[in-house]
Amino acid sequence: PAPLAGGAAADADVFRALAVAGTQCHAALHTELWGDVLVWGSTHRTRNAAECCAACQAHQHAAARGGLDKGANSTACNAWVFCPDAKRCGARHRECWLKHQASAVPPKEQPEGASAWTSGVLLQGDAWLQPYERLNTLTLQFELGPVAVELLPKLAPASVREIRRLAALVAGERCGGCRIYRPEPHFLVQGVMGDPGGYVATPRHPNPPQQKMMQRGLVCWAGGMGGPDFFVNLIDQSGFGDDHLCWGLIANMTLMDQIVVLPTKPKAKPNDMTFLAHELNFNLTLS
């Protein structure tokens, strides 16, 4: 499941804030997770599900600092259970149970009515990204339509890893910093890809040798850097040499060819860069 999936609508912004700060709550509605109880919800209430998730992480940190019953060897929270609905939960409304599971995995959201509870897990490090490692199609979702980018991990492994992380983080929702801003006919379309808290920046070196002939449709980081600005190559060309790190390939360039002829801002000088009159925002999905 997506790292931001689940949770009441009122919690969505808080879940997102936790996620970009590094806490993946893996929340699922209508779900009650089992496990060894560490903190009893009957005496531990939070204002919302996101705060319950944050309490689970705070419990982890306290255990790591040696602040619990068994010091650094204390069992730490990795699963949380919250009762959000006042009517269905009754006296248990806003109870937040902190638990430990021997093998915690992100829960699957259950049908409405299956349970009054909302639950989630906290995985260590980048374990939450494992389901995304086999996904190699990044789709840029424009209002004009989708653009499918085949990821090229053999050419830019670190960049592909970071792009998967960003796409997983925004989980198909609005990517706050993803936009196309520059069209240069017979040359390139340029944009930027990032989100507040979800920064994409990878070292230019070391990486495998790049293709000397840059084919039409290659997607590469701009300016010889490692992101977040990127460009889509519109023609086969060899002028870039090995200066740009390329991480994707677009097979169907129809929409890019449409973007390059959209209205642009006036130029002060003929050789100035070309900028769109209206930038194009896009979202990210992985498949």
Care to describe what's here?
InterPro entries: Cyclophilin-like_dom_sf, Cyclophilin-type_PPIase_dom, Pan_app. One of its GO terms (molecular function) is peptidyl-prolyl cis-trans isomerase activity. This protein has 5 helices and 13 strands. A 9-stranded antiparallel sheet has the order 12-7-8-10-9-11-6-5-13. A 4-stranded antiparallel sheet has the order 1-3-2-4, with helices on one face. Helices cover 17% and strands 21% of the residues. The radius of gyration is 23 Å and the shape is elongated. The two termini are 13 Å apart. The N terminus is likely disordered. The chain has 287 residues and is an alpha+beta fold. It has 2 domains: 118 residues, no CATH class; 154 residues, Cyclophilin-like (Cyclophilin), CATH 2.40.100.
Write the layout of secondary structure elements.
Blueprint: H1 12-20, E1 36-39, H2 49-64, E2 79-82, H3 86-89, E3 96-100, E4 118-121, E5 137-142, E6 145-151, H4 157-170, E7 179-184, E8 188-192, E9 218-221, E10 229-233, E11 246-249, H5 254-259, E12 280-281, E13 283-286
Antiparallel strand pairs: 1-3, 2-3, 2-4, 5-6, 5-13, 6-11, 7-8, 7-12, 8-10, 9-10, 9-11
Domain PPIase cyclophilin-type: 139-272
GO molecular function, one term: peptidyl-prolyl cis-trans isomerase activity
Domain Apple: 31-59, 74-99
